[in-house]
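Q: How would the C-alpha coordinates look for this protein?
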Amino acid sequence: MINKKQLYIIIIVVIIIGVFVAIKFWPKGYSDNPKDWIENGKIDVQKATKDLSYQDFIGQQYKGDIKTVFQHDGSYLGNYFEDEYVLDNKVMIRFTENIKPNNNIPEIFIFEVIENNEPIVHIFLDVDWKNSLDYTNIVWGKDYQSEKSFNYKEIENGIYYDSVKDDKSRFSEDYKIHYSGIIVGQVNQEDILENNLQNTIIVRLK
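A: Here is the predicted structure in C-alpha coordinate form.
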Protein backbone atom coordinates (compact mmCIF):
# COMPACT_ATOMS: atom_id res chain seq x y z
CA MET A 1 0.00 0.00 0.00
CA ILE A 2 1.41 3.40 -1.02
CA ASN A 3 1.34 6.01 1.69
CA LYS A 4 0.79 9.74 1.10
CA LYS A 5 4.49 10.60 1.17
CA GLN A 6 5.31 7.99 -1.47
CA LEU A 7 2.37 9.17 -3.57
CA TYR A 8 3.60 12.76 -3.45
CA ILE A 9 7.09 11.64 -4.51
CA ILE A 10 5.66 9.67 -7.44
CA ILE A 11 3.56 12.66 -8.54
CA ILE A 12 6.58 14.99 -8.36
CA VAL A 13 8.72 12.56 -10.37
CA VAL A 14 5.99 12.23 -13.02
CA ILE A 15 5.68 16.03 -13.27
CA ILE A 16 9.46 16.44 -13.63
CA ILE A 17 9.58 13.78 -16.37
CA GLY A 18 6.61 15.42 -18.11
CA VAL A 19 8.27 18.85 -18.08
CA PHE A 20 11.51 17.38 -19.44
CA VAL A 21 9.70 15.59 -22.27
CA ALA A 22 7.72 18.74 -23.11
CA ILE A 23 10.89 20.85 -23.29
CA LYS A 24 12.70 18.25 -25.39
CA PHE A 25 9.94 17.66 -27.93
CA TRP A 26 8.08 20.98 -27.95
CA PRO A 27 8.26 22.57 -31.43
CA LYS A 28 11.06 25.12 -31.69
CA GLY A 29 10.01 28.74 -31.89
CA TYR A 30 10.85 30.27 -35.26
CA SER A 31 10.45 33.79 -36.50
CA ASP A 32 10.11 35.37 -39.92
CA ASN A 33 11.58 38.60 -38.59
CA PRO A 34 15.26 38.98 -39.64
CA LYS A 35 15.93 40.85 -36.37
CA ASP A 36 15.39 37.55 -34.57
CA TRP A 37 18.05 35.80 -36.69
CA ILE A 38 20.94 37.96 -35.54
CA GLU A 39 22.50 38.46 -32.14
CA ASN A 40 25.68 40.47 -31.57
CA GLY A 41 26.53 40.17 -35.26
CA LYS A 42 26.09 36.39 -35.39
CA ILE A 43 23.54 35.38 -38.04
CA ASP A 44 21.77 32.08 -37.37
CA VAL A 45 20.97 30.39 -40.69
CA GLN A 46 19.35 27.40 -38.98
CA LYS A 47 16.93 29.68 -37.16
CA ALA A 48 16.20 31.69 -40.31
CA THR A 49 15.46 28.57 -42.37
CA LYS A 50 13.57 26.81 -39.56
CA ASP A 51 16.30 24.19 -39.21
CA LEU A 52 16.15 23.24 -42.90
CA SER A 53 19.69 24.44 -43.66
CA TYR A 54 22.99 25.30 -42.00
CA GLN A 55 26.19 27.13 -42.89
CA ASP A 56 29.55 25.35 -43.03
CA PHE A 57 32.89 25.75 -44.82
CA ILE A 58 31.32 24.59 -48.10
CA GLY A 59 28.38 26.98 -48.03
CA GLN A 60 24.72 27.00 -47.09
CA GLN A 61 23.53 23.40 -47.05
CA TYR A 62 19.84 22.57 -47.36
CA LYS A 63 19.01 19.20 -45.78
CA GLY A 64 15.19 18.85 -45.89
CA ASP A 65 13.00 17.90 -48.84
CA ILE A 66 15.09 20.38 -50.83
CA LYS A 67 18.71 19.28 -50.94
CA THR A 68 21.06 21.85 -52.41
CA VAL A 69 24.08 23.99 -51.58
CA PHE A 70 24.49 27.74 -52.00
CA GLN A 71 28.14 28.71 -52.32
CA HIS A 72 29.79 32.12 -52.41
CA ASP A 73 32.75 33.92 -53.92
CA GLY A 74 33.74 37.43 -54.89
CA SER A 75 36.00 39.80 -56.74
CA TYR A 76 37.92 42.76 -55.34
CA LEU A 77 39.00 45.10 -58.15
CA GLY A 78 39.42 42.10 -60.43
CA ASN A 79 41.00 39.82 -57.81
CA TYR A 80 39.04 36.62 -57.17
CA PHE A 81 38.44 35.39 -53.60
CA GLU A 82 36.21 32.97 -51.75
CA ASP A 83 35.87 33.90 -48.06
CA GLU A 84 38.08 36.99 -47.93
CA TYR A 85 40.55 39.01 -49.95
CA VAL A 86 43.86 39.96 -48.32
CA LEU A 87 46.22 42.62 -49.66
CA ASP A 88 49.54 43.42 -47.92
CA ASN A 89 48.43 41.46 -44.83
CA LYS A 90 45.22 43.48 -44.58
CA VAL A 91 41.76 41.94 -45.05
CA MET A 92 40.05 44.11 -47.65
CA ILE A 93 36.67 42.33 -47.69
CA ARG A 94 35.14 39.30 -45.97
CA PHE A 95 32.14 36.99 -46.33
CA THR A 96 31.10 35.82 -42.86
CA GLU A 97 28.08 35.00 -40.74
CA ASN A 98 29.90 36.61 -37.78
CA ILE A 99 29.79 40.29 -38.69
CA LYS A 100 31.83 42.67 -36.52
CA PRO A 101 31.08 46.33 -37.26
CA ASN A 102 33.77 48.98 -36.85
CA ASN A 103 36.70 46.59 -37.31
CA ASN A 104 37.74 48.38 -40.54
CA ILE A 105 36.85 45.30 -42.62
CA PRO A 106 33.86 45.45 -44.99
CA GLU A 107 31.86 42.33 -44.10
CA ILE A 108 28.81 40.75 -45.69
CA PHE A 109 26.67 37.65 -45.38
CA ILE A 110 24.13 36.39 -47.92
CA PHE A 111 21.86 33.34 -47.75
CA GLU A 112 18.59 32.01 -49.15
CA VAL A 113 15.36 31.08 -47.40
CA ILE A 114 13.20 28.77 -49.50
CA GLU A 115 9.68 28.56 -48.14
CA ASN A 116 6.51 27.53 -49.97
CA ASN A 117 8.65 27.19 -53.10
CA GLU A 118 9.61 30.87 -52.91
CA PRO A 119 13.35 31.62 -52.69
CA ILE A 120 14.17 34.84 -50.85
CA VAL A 121 17.71 36.24 -50.66
CA HIS A 122 18.70 37.84 -47.35
CA ILE A 123 21.68 40.20 -47.20
CA PHE A 124 23.45 41.53 -44.13
CA LEU A 125 26.41 43.91 -44.29
CA ASP A 126 28.15 46.30 -41.92
CA VAL A 127 29.03 49.94 -41.48
CA ASP A 128 32.59 49.30 -42.68
CA TRP A 129 31.13 48.09 -45.97
CA LYS A 130 28.86 51.13 -46.18
CA ASN A 131 31.77 53.50 -45.56
CA SER A 132 34.25 51.73 -47.85
CA LEU A 133 32.24 51.31 -51.05
CA ASP A 134 31.07 54.22 -53.18
CA TYR A 135 27.67 52.57 -53.60
CA THR A 136 26.08 49.12 -53.26
CA ASN A 137 23.77 47.48 -55.76
CA ILE A 138 22.10 44.09 -55.85
CA VAL A 139 22.06 42.42 -59.28
CA TRP A 140 20.36 39.05 -59.71
CA GLY A 141 18.39 36.70 -61.96
CA LYS A 142 19.14 33.93 -64.42
CA ASP A 143 20.34 36.55 -66.91
CA TYR A 144 21.17 39.15 -64.28
CA GLN A 145 18.12 41.02 -65.48
CA SER A 146 17.22 42.59 -62.13
CA GLU A 147 19.02 45.40 -60.31
CA LYS A 148 18.30 47.57 -57.27
CA SER A 149 20.21 49.73 -54.82
CA PHE A 150 20.86 48.20 -51.43
CA ASN A 151 18.44 49.63 -48.87
CA TYR A 152 20.51 50.38 -45.77
CA LYS A 153 18.01 49.37 -43.10
CA GLU A 154 19.85 49.14 -39.78
CA ILE A 155 18.90 45.86 -38.12
CA GLU A 156 21.49 45.87 -35.35
CA ASN A 157 24.03 48.48 -34.30
CA GLY A 158 26.29 48.99 -37.35
CA ILE A 159 24.66 46.15 -39.35
CA TYR A 160 22.28 46.68 -42.26
CA TYR A 161 19.79 44.40 -43.98
CA ASP A 162 17.98 44.07 -47.29
CA SER A 163 16.31 41.25 -49.23
CA VAL A 164 15.13 40.39 -52.73
CA LYS A 165 12.92 37.70 -54.20
CA ASP A 166 15.16 35.38 -56.17
CA ASP A 167 14.47 34.40 -59.77
CA LYS A 168 13.02 30.87 -59.69
CA SER A 169 13.93 30.36 -63.32
CA ARG A 170 17.61 30.23 -62.37
CA PHE A 171 16.98 26.90 -60.62
CA SER A 172 16.17 23.46 -61.97
CA GLU A 173 15.73 19.93 -60.64
CA ASP A 174 14.11 21.08 -57.40
CA TYR A 175 16.82 23.68 -56.70
CA LYS A 176 19.68 21.20 -57.17
CA ILE A 177 21.06 23.09 -60.18
CA HIS A 178 21.72 26.83 -60.00
CA TYR A 179 22.39 29.27 -62.83
CA SER A 180 24.01 32.70 -62.37
CA GLY A 181 23.50 34.09 -58.86
CA ILE A 182 23.01 37.13 -56.65
CA ILE A 183 25.74 39.76 -56.82
CA VAL A 184 26.05 42.48 -54.19
CA GLY A 185 28.54 45.32 -54.24
CA GLN A 186 30.01 48.27 -56.08
CA VAL A 187 28.79 47.07 -59.46
CA ASN A 188 25.98 47.50 -61.94
CA GLN A 189 24.18 45.28 -64.40
CA GLU A 190 26.26 46.47 -67.35
CA ASP A 191 29.53 45.57 -65.58
CA ILE A 192 28.32 42.02 -65.04
CA LEU A 193 26.89 41.46 -68.50
CA GLU A 194 30.11 42.73 -70.08
CA ASN A 195 32.29 40.86 -67.54
CA ASN A 196 33.95 44.14 -66.67
CA LEU A 197 34.96 43.54 -63.05
CA GLN A 198 38.31 45.33 -62.84
CA ASN A 199 36.81 48.32 -61.03
CA THR A 200 34.15 46.47 -59.05
CA ILE A 201 33.95 45.13 -55.51
CA ILE A 202 31.47 42.28 -55.31
CA VAL A 203 30.32 39.19 -53.44
CA ARG A 204 28.22 36.54 -55.14
CA LEU A 205 25.89 33.87 -53.81
CA LYS A 206 25.52 31.15 -56.41
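DSSP finds four helices and 19 strands in the chain.

The chain has one domain: 30-205.

Upvote if useful.
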